[in-house]
Amino acid sequence: MNLAALHQQEQALRQQMVELGRSLFARGYATGGAGNLSVKLADSTILATPTGASLGRLQADTLSKVSLEGEHLSGDRPSKEVQFHLAMYRANPDFGAVVHLHCTHLTALSCRADLNPDNVIRPFTPYYVMRVGKLPLVPYYAPGASEIARDLAALSADHRAMLLANHGPVVTGTSLINAVDNMEELEETAKLMLMLENQPIRYLTEDQISELERRYG
């Protein structure tokens, strides 16, 4: 890709990040300055939301740009949590974007003490299996702790989404749109799970899950 095409792609992704951030904020998936987004450019540099930035008020020309090694290249200073985004990109080159939110239902779920750390949500809809697969739990660490990046990187080879205990979800995708769609499906699944608490649930069988994994995994 030549320089003109790289520049055009970057400008389009900057605008896309602004629009998707505004949409997430307007619909209550993000509040205040919480949460962060990132997307990998064609030259393997990373475009990310700046530190303390509200997803509802992002500006295309002030978004942070960093190298895969963490060097701040341009724009406002990136969030401290960009380090775990970078660790995930380095661990899995297939990731094209990372979305981290403090959305209500997934964050509420992350605070429960009765979670299966290998897969927080037992599958009961096909869409959870198709878009997320499994949702492992990362133990609680203070925001910005290096252990978060370490644990997320270790899980990135085999998982598209992870839940940070007492913190919130981290979801990936092949593109920023794909990652946001995966995040929205996961948040809706958590909402349904909490709605169905203490109700008899028809969970998917192992055969049904395996069929979905074969088709969409």
UniProtKB/TrEMBL annotation:
One of its GO terms (molecular function) is aldehyde-lyase activity. One of its GO terms (cellular component) is cytosol. InterPro entries: Aldolase_class_II_sugar_metab, Aldolase_II/adducin_N, Aldolase_II/adducin_N_sf, OtnC. It comes from the Bacteria. Its EC number is 4.1.1.104. Transmembrane segments: none annotated. GO terms for biological process: pentose catabolic process. Residues 15-194 form the Class II aldolase/adducin N-terminal domain. Keywords: Carbohydrate metabolism, Lyase, Metal-binding, Zinc. It catalyses: 3-dehydro-4-O-phospho-D-erythronate + H(+) = dihydroxyacetone phosphate + CO2; 3-dehydro-4-O-phospho-L-erythronate + H(+) = dihydroxyacetone phosphate + CO2. Its cofactor is Zn(2+). Coiled coil: none annotated. PANTHER family: 3-OXO-TETRONATE 4-PHOSPHATE DECARBOXYLASE-RELATED, FUCULOSE PHOSPHATE ALDOLASE. Belongs to the aldolase class II family. AraD/FucA subfamily. NCBIfam families: OxoTetrPhDc, PRK08130.1. Catalyzes the decarboxylation of 3-oxo-tetronate 4-phosphate to dihydroxyacetone phosphate (DHAP) and CO(2). This is 3-oxo-tetronate 4-phosphate decarboxylase.
